[in-house]
What does this fold into?
Amino acid sequence: MRIFFVLLTLSFLSLTTVFAQKIDTLSINLENVKYPYPIKYLPITVEGQDVRMAYMDVAPSITPNGRTVMLFHGKNFGGYYWGHVIQALTSAGFRVIAPDQIGFGRSSKPIINYSFKQLAEWNKKLLDTLGIQKTSILGHSMGGMLATRFALMYPERMDKLLLENPIGLEDYKTFVPVSTVEEQYQRELKNTAESIRQYYKSSYFTVWKPDYEYLVNIGAGVTFSADFPKYAKVAALTYNMIYEQPVVDEFKDLKVPTILFIGKEDKTIVGKGLLNADQQAIHGLYRFLGKNTALRIPGSKIVEFEACGHIPHIEIRTEFLVALTGSL
It folds into this structure.
């Protein structure tokens, strides 16, 4: 009987391993990741390459209020993590557009010179294609930097700028050592499920919960892909974009009504692993950065969340959605 249970346990572990490998191995364009709403594609030509920009276009689930909200995801994410936000907004009468930026999520991963200016132009093209004249934009993390650049370039196309724990509240060039794309590429190639999990635990959330594992599964799943080196190169190129194209000194020039949503326990620093412990202790402190940024942006407002890290729309979902819909 004991041998039977041992064999049964070994069989279960073997099946579990196979199943885990099956869910964890992802294509770099995330075709095997479930998105909350149907995906459409905008064709784009860049640097002699034909690429596709994925996006969700979700209609209001009640009588439309005539307004649109666009969602810009963070660097380590894609549109898959916006499900509850889209549901809340469409339930309030908004049309929601949630693109995966070129180089991320379901969109193409071309090896190009990435810039926030170019990404902003592509998002304007998406709005033009859909016949949308004005939108509010909610930008999370890197999406906050992009939303800021969009607002600086096209203020006439925006109702409100909504920044959820945006990165770029500091000029990383002033304290993070410079890296070549090749050096960053080699670091990206070393990513594993455990290193990604530890980074998310230490930087993104105040208390780790099993509910967050799906983010790790997606972030780490692409490392098993045969195309992972291409994915890592794109990640290095977009890291370089963030490092070299700050927006912090241009907040004063914003003319769009702006609201910051800040999880006060966030300690995100782009290039954190290149800093020693003393440097890490004085940077990335959103409980201070949020207030300082609000002072830089003319007429802006700030909503702060206690006991919350980098992703309020996941960590304190209900509280964030109440604040978001109320602000709109």
User: Anything to note?
Assistant: The domain at 2-327 is CATH 3.40.50.1820 (Rossmann fold). The CA atoms of residues 203 and 268 lie 5 Å apart. The first helix runs from residue 2 to 24. The radius of gyration is 20 Å.
